[in-house]
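Inverse folding, one chain.
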């Protein structure tokens, strides 16, 4: 299961949390369109509303009105082909001996089966095959023996993989980021309370101020009365493993992740793409929407270098068509590209064009778009991609297709160029990505472009030092 999701948690002084949670989920809708949910706590009991569908369809006025309390968490979940599954919709909530627990998870654990079987032996019954329920049960068990902070630390020492979590224990909202900070999570100040969210765009939507990113391995505990928060650095790792693909494709360009505005990073990647593999054509065209910032950076760099090139819109996007990845078959995916994008003939006809997109996964989009450009009268079609070739699957939370489906898994760039029928094709280097993020290869998760993962994935090669925790039934040291 590859969960690519958005999470949020809010504690307010004396306002209901339901509506701000609802607005935040709207701001995070791009992170998941399969299901949406909110769990609140009113000081006495939990209230929950979780359903399949888009945020706007899942909640109506009555639903929001019954979500009482000034503390709550929310979740949007991304669809994976073939696994549209109501049991995995979140937040996951349970009541147990020492209180109620709600959990929203973005990421993917790689040692769930071990923990699940250990807990099952101890009598825990599971209702889904997801990671989140396993984290919830592990935490519930630790809470029987320890205080909240120690219980979270014990669970963090047992689970391995990527996770950004918002958790609600009774009316206390917590945020946790995995020790290598693979998925994003940040804290915002709302004036009369605090918010934890996958992306800062959710904080902006609430007119709040971004305080900072939650640090890798850090736990943030919001005060239930909305007056502040406490932080605990619970687990330290030697390096980080920030997902570079959040910056390339997944996150909103108006979000700040790990102290970088995604828009600036994409523009910088576009500039580097020109510096590394620029080609001078009559016009530079973005593939909307994610190609836009790349193409504007690329065109700027071209113009700075003295090229006589126009930056124009050559493709119109139908904003009512969802992401092509929800199409289960290749035939449907091809049709979806055509539904989604239509050329603006006058910007293309008789011209040499450079098409800029953020990534090639299966190759469906590029193949279709090159053909569309030719049908619209382009004389030459050059394709430039703002990421390195994607050669391996993602196990850390991005739905990226299996290895067999990835066009770059077993083809050279020249073979891909032939297949998509472009006049030329170039990708961005891995070093350019690390440079643009002011980081190093060792502090990024580059699994999908190197096949080397920062976590110990069964049946995958990795050249990094990976410490998979040993799971012991006795409490880990505090
Ligand atoms: P493909 O057509 O399979 O080569 O997919 C590439 C297109 O999908 C590009 O236009 C990307 O912007 C977009 N894309 C890249 N990664 C993903 C993803 N994980 N989920 C959905 N769309 C993606």
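Residues assigned per position:
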């Amino acid at each position: 299961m590859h969960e690519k999701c958005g999470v949020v948690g809010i504690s307010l002084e004396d306002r209901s949390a339901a509506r701000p949670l609802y607005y935040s989920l709207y701001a995070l809708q791009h992170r998941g369109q399969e299901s949406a949910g909110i769990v609140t706590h009113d000081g006495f009991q939990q209230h929950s509303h979780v359903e399949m569908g888009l945020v706007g369809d899942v909640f109506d006025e009555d639903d929001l009105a019954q979500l009482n309390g000034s503390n709550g968490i929310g979740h949007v979940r991304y669809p994976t082909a073939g696994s549209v599954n109501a049991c995995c919709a979140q937040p996951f909530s349970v009541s147990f001996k020492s209180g109620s627990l709600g959990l929203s998870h973005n990421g993917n654990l790689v040692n769930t089966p071990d923990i699940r079987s250990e807990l099952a032996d101890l009598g825990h019954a599971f209702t889904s095959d997801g990671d989140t329920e396993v984290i919830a049960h592990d935490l519930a068990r630790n809470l029987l023996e320890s205080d909240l902070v120690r219980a979270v630390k014990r669970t963090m020492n047992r689970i391995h993989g990527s996770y950004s979590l918002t958790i609600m224990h009774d009316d206390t909202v917590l945020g946790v980021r995995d020790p290598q900070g693979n998925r994003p999570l940040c804290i915002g100040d709302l004036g009369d309370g605090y918010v934890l969210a996958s992306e800062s765009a959710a904080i902006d939507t609430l007119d709040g101020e971004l305080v900072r990113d939650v640090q890798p391995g850090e736990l943030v505990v919001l005060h239930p009365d909305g007056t502040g928060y406490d932080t605990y650095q619970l687990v330290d790792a030697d390096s980080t493993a920030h997902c570079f693909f959040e910056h390339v494709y997944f996150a909103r360009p108006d979000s700040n992740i790990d102290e970088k505005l995604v828009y600036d990073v994409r523009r910088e990647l576009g500039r580097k793409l020109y510096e590394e593999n620029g080609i001078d054509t009559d016009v530079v065209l973005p593939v909307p929407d994610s190609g836009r910032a790349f193409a504007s950076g690329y065109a700027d760099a071209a113009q700075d270098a003295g090229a006589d090139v126009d930056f124009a819109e050559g493709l119109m996007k139908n904003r009512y068509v969802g992401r092509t990845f929800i199409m289960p078959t290749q035939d449907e995916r091809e049709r979806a590209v055509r539904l989604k994008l239509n050329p603006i003939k006058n910007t293309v006809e008789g011209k040499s064009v450079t098409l800029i997109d953020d990534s090639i996964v299966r190759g469906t989009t590029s193949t279709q778009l090159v053909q569309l450009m030719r049908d619209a009268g382009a004389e030459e079609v050059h394709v430039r991609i703002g990421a390195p070739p994607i050669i391996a699957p993602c196990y850390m939370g991005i739905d990226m297709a299996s290895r067999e489906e990835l066009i770059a898994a077993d083809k050279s760039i020249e073979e891909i160029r032939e297949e998509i029928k472009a006049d030329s094709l170039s990708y961005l280097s891995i070093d350019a990505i690390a440079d643009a993020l002011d980081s190093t290869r060792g502090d990024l998760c580059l699994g999908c472009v190197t096949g080397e993962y920062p976590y110990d994935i069964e049946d995958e090669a990795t050249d990094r030092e990976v410490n998979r925790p040993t799971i012991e039934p006795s409490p880990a040291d505090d």
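The two ends are 31 Å apart (CA to CA). The mean pLDDT is 91.
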